[in-house]
Every structure is written in C-alpha cells, then in structure tokens.
C-alpha cells in the first residue's frame, strides 16, 4: 500500500398507524448491497509537489490540497487515468443526494448514487471545497441500475475537512473506461455538479422510532461507532407503536396492540423500562418539560394526567376536544390539532378540516385554547414545537392523517402568521411525508455565513436514490423510511428547508416511523450485583440493547 501524500496545487476556486400498515418485508430493487462500512480506500501518492509560498502578496487563486483515495478492486493508478479529452456523451448523472442538501459531519455513513455514462467502468467522485479536494476512485458498485459510492465515518471526515471555510463542497462524478490497446488516454465524461453542505457542528442527541416489525428501536448520535439497538420488543399482534418521550429522555409512553389506544399501557422509566403507576388508554400524548404532567389524547378528547403515575389530575376543562398534542420546550403552552367536526373516534388520527390550536399553561392549569392556524378545508395535524419555541412544524393534507401519500410538510411561527410549505424537504407531492419532529438543539452551520440551524426528521415513502425505487408501486406496497432535513430559521421570504437525506442507521428492509429525539440515551448501569434486562448486554458498566 502506498502512503498518501497531500499535494497542493494552484487551481481556480471551485466554485400512520397500525402495525399492519407496512409490508413486513421490503422488496428491495437494488440487488446485493455494498454497505461500504468495511471498505477502506487505498490512499494514493499523486506525485505532485507542493507550491511553496514565497511570502509575497500576489493576486492568485487559493491553494487547494488534493487528497486521493482508491477503493479496493480499483487500479492503484486510477487518478492518472482521467487525463483524456472531455466527452459530454460519456457524462455520468448524479441521482442522490439532491443539490443543496445539507448533512452533519458525524453520520455513520452516506451514499452518492449516480448512473454511469456510456462506456464508463472507472469513476472519480470529487468533493471540492475552498481549500481541500477529496477524490474517491471506484469501480461501479451496482445499485438499482446505477452505481453507489458509500462513504464511511473516515471518508466523511475527509469530506467535512474539504467543506471547512465555505461550509460546502462541490460534488462531481467523472467517468472513463479502462485502458485498451491504444496508448492514448480514453475520453472522460463529467457530471453536472451539485453542492453538498456540511455543517460545522455535529448532530447531537439520540432518536427512538417505531419499526414496522412491531418494536421500538433507538440510536445514539453522540457515540462514535454506535449502532441501532432494540429498545422495546413487540410483534405484529402485540405491536409497540405510537410513543411519546419526555424532553429529557427519561420517560416514555408507548401504546401496544394492533390498533393504537385499545390496550391500556403505563408510562415507563426509560433506563430501567419499569412501569410507573397506572396503565391508561391513549393514542397520542406529550410530557410537560418538567415531567410533572402528561397531556394525553384518545384521538378525540384531551386529558391531563400525572406524569409520574398516569393518574388523572385537575388543570384541564372536561371535554376539551383535540388530538396530537405537543408541549412547548419552555413549558408555557401546548399545541394540538382539532377537527372542526368532532369525530366519533380517532385512535389512528382524523380527517377533514382541522385547526391548529394553542392552549396556555400557568404551571398548574391550562387556560382557554386559541387558534394558531385556521383551516380552510384542509387537514392540519401532527404539530411539533421547535427547540427554540419559535416554530411549529406540522403536516397538511386532504383526507385522513394516517398513511396519506399526499401529506405535506409545513411550518408556521408559533406566534401566528402565514404558514410556509417546506417544499424542498417535501421533495414532491406524493411522498407521504409524515410525523415531522425536531431534534432538541439549535446548531450552527459554520462556513462563510455562520447562522443558526435546526434539524427535523420525518417519515417518507419516497425513493431513496437508486436503492429504493417505489414510486410506481401501489400505495400499500410502499415502505416508509426516516429522512432528515435542515431548517434555516433566518431565511426570509421563502422556503427555509433544504432537500432531505436518508438516515443511514435504520433498517432499509422494513418500514420506520415516528422518529422522536432526546438530548441523550438513558441507560441502566450494570456490573456487580446489577443485571441488564432482556435483550441487553452489560458493556462498560452500562446496558446496551441487542441489534433490532
């Protein structure tokens, strides 16, 4: 193996919800998948000497450092095979991600999907920043009629380094064919470029979601080398589905049964999974930030319960109608959805014109509800407060709130105002984008314009590049996956969202829903005299769940 030497060259700057709603086994289109996690690119010495700075101020382009990485099974001299003439007819085409997607630097993996140009069998995938260029050389790893480059954590560190300063990289794929008997270099096709943003700040927090196998799974973004782990095991009959987490991640309520709300279940302590108090029937709910109260709904009416034992407590007018509540992080109010015509029941949601309502909390009781967003015939549902309390993200659709392919992502100021469709994150009109939830922190973008940034996740039945191609399927045969997008709150006069990306720690072979975020995972300590629960192993004094 040769030793990588970075070279500096002067170049121009480059510029839902019953368990039966999902197909149990996903019919992947892609064929055998290359996870990419075991691959380590072979670094190649490009042989270029660094330009020495004489210390004299001159008008010249910035110095760029080029780092080349060659995938296993790819010729070690691949960087030298792209000197041929440009051939537009042989240009590859980028499929995923979309232009101007933004990602955090600490994802466990990330993929670039592209279709090769005519005759291509050798590829260069370039990530060009203001100062550094990272280039990966690879054969075609076949996926869904095209090719994929899987970047692991080490590779993503190189991409993040390239993005420093400007906050993004320009992604380009070049393709050529392997040398033949001719001594001349073969033509090279070049894709149209896209811009990929990489934030300065890592994504923080931990996420819990419902898998269509009937269980709840979780993942810790704050731990290097983490993997998804089973949290609550269920099955298609005893399904663990709709769930609500306290904002500090210490408590959870999770419904059980084939239909939400039919089986009474208690609040649990997340670290131990022990039941806290009395089981109760509900479909939706939200903890107060101090965990003293739980605002529950059966899909028709709201109820106020003790957050430690599930018992009813005073503080909410009897018969208050509403569903899908979310308590604000500052604890001063809650938002919920209220159909204009009260349904007879609503364990899986509701349909018809529905308003978004705000209800103030004094610390001991709720006041009178007011309208945040009045419906003009559309269904507004699944509202969620941003971590800075300034925004409410929600779904909007004609018809029902459960498994609606027409569901769209919208946001509105929590103080009132015109709602904004998150068109870029939506990615189309029939992707079934549902259950939007924010991560718990306000981050920073870094780069030339350092600004606040929020992340949100949602469930979507869209295509995932070339790995999941399902838009031609019947609605019931499409699988739901977890997607994430950035939200730039300082955007004025337009869509503050960015195109979404697929979350790489989920199981691609099953449906995944209702991603809810907390600052950190709560684990039971273990060791001498202390044992872990079912499906967990004691590692380093803490209980770690089994793979899902």
> How much strand?
35-45%
Overall, the morphology is globular
Distance between the termini: 37 Å
Helix coverage percent:
under 10%
The tally of strands reads: 39
Describe the structure.
The protein contains 2 helices and 39 strands. The protein is an all-beta fold and 548 residues long. The two termini are 37 Å apart. It is globular, with a radius of gyration of 25 Å. The strands form 9 sheets. Strands 1, 2, 3, 5, 7, 8, 11, 12 and 13 form a 9-stranded mixed sheet that branches. Strands 32, 33, 34, 35 and 36 form a 5-stranded antiparallel sheet that branches. Helices cover 3% and strands 37% of the residues. The longest helix has 11 residues, at 153-163. Strand 22 (293-297) and strand 23 form a beta hairpin.
Write the layout of secondary structure elements.
Blueprint: E1 7-10, E2 42-43, E3 63-70, E4 93-96, E5 101-103, E6 109-115, E7 122-128, E8 132-138, E9 142-143, E10 146-152, H1 153-163, E11 168-176, E12 189-190, E13 194-198, E14 206-211, E15 215-220, E16 229-232, E17 240-245, E18 251-256, E19 265-269, E20 275-280, E21 284-287, E22 293-297, E23 302-306, E24 323-327, E25 333-339, E26 354-360, E27 370-373, E28 379-385, E29 391-397, E30 408-413, E31 420-421, H2 423-426, E32 434-438, E33 443-444, E34 452-460, E35 481-487, E36 501-502, E37 512-518, E38 536-539, E39 542-545
Parallel strand pairs: 3-8, 5-13
Antiparallel strand pairs: 1-3, 2-3, 4-6, 6-10, 7-8, 7-11, 9-10, 11-12, 11-13, 14-15, 14-37, 15-16, 17-18, 18-19, 19-20, 21-22, 22-23, 24-25, 25-26, 26-27, 28-29, 29-30, 30-31, 32-34, 33-34, 34-35, 35-36, 38-39
């Amino acid at each position: 193996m040769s030793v990588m030497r970075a070279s500096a060259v002067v170049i121009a700057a480059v510029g839902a919800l019953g368990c039966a709603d999902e197909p149990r086994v996903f019919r992947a289109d892609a064929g055998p998948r290359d996870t990419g996690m075991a691959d380590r690119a072979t670094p190649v010495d490009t042989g270029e000497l660094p330009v020495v700075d004489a210390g004299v101020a001159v008008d010249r382009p910035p110095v760029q450092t080029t780092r080349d990485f060659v995938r296993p099974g790819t010729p070690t001299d691949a960087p030298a095979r792209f000197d041929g003439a440009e051939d537009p007819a042989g240009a590859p085409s980028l499929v995923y991600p979309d232009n101007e997607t933004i990602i955090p630097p600490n994802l466990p993996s990330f993929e670039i999907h592209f279709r090769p140009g005519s005759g291509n069998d050798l590829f260069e995938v370039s990530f060009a920043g203001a100062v550094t260029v990272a280039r990966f050389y690879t054969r075609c790893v076949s996926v869904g009629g095209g090719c994929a480059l899987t970047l692991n954590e080490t590779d993503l560190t190189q991409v993040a380094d390239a993005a420093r300063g400007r906050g993004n990289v320009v992604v380009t794929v070049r393709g050529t064919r392997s040398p033949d008997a001719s001594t001349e270099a073969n033509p090279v096709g070049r894709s149209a470029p896209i811009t990929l943003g990489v934030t300065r700040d890592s994504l923080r927090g931990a996420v819990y979601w419902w898998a269509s196998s009937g269980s709840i799974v979780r993942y810790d973004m704050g731990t290097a080398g983490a993997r998804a782990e089973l949290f609550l095991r269920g099955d298609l009959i005893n399904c663990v589905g709709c769930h609500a987490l306290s904002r500090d991640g210490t408590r959870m309520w999770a419904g059980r049964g084939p239909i939400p709300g039919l089986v009474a279940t208690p609040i649990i302590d997340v670290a131990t999974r022990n039941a806290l108090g009395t089981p109760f029937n509900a479909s939706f709910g939200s903890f107060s930030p101090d965990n003293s109260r739980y605002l529950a709904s059966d899909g028709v009416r709201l109820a106020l319960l003790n957050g430690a034992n599930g018992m009813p407590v005073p503080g909410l007018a009897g018969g208050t109608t509403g569903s899908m509540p979310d308590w604000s992080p500052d604890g001063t109010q809650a938002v919920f959805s209220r159909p204009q015509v009260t349904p007879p029941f609503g364990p899986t949601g509701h349909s018809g014109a529905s308003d978004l309502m705000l209800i103030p909390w004094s610390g001991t009781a709720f006041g009178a509800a007011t309208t945040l967003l009045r419906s003009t015939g559309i269904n507004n549902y699944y509202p969620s407060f941003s971590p800075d309390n300034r925004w409410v993200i929600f779904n909007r659709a004609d018809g029902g709130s459960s498994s609606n392919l027409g569901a769209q992502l919208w946001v509105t100021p929590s103080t009132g105002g015109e709602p904004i469709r998150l068109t870029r994150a939506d990615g189309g009109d029939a992707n079934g984008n549902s259950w939007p939830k924010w991560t718990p922190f306000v981050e920073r973008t870094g780069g030339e314009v350092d600004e606040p940034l929020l992340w949100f996740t949602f469930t979507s039945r869209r295509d995932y590049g070339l790995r999941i191609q399902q838009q031609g399927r019947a609605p019931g045969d499409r699988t739901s996956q977890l997607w994430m997008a950035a939200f730039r709150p300082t955007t004025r006069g337009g869509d503050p969202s960015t195109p979404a990306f697929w979350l790489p720690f989920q199981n691609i072979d099953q449906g995944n829903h209702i991603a809810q975020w907390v600052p950190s995972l709560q684990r039971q300590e273990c060791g001498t005299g202390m044992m872990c629960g079912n499906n967990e192993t004691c590692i380093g004094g803490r209980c770690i769940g089994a793979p899902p």
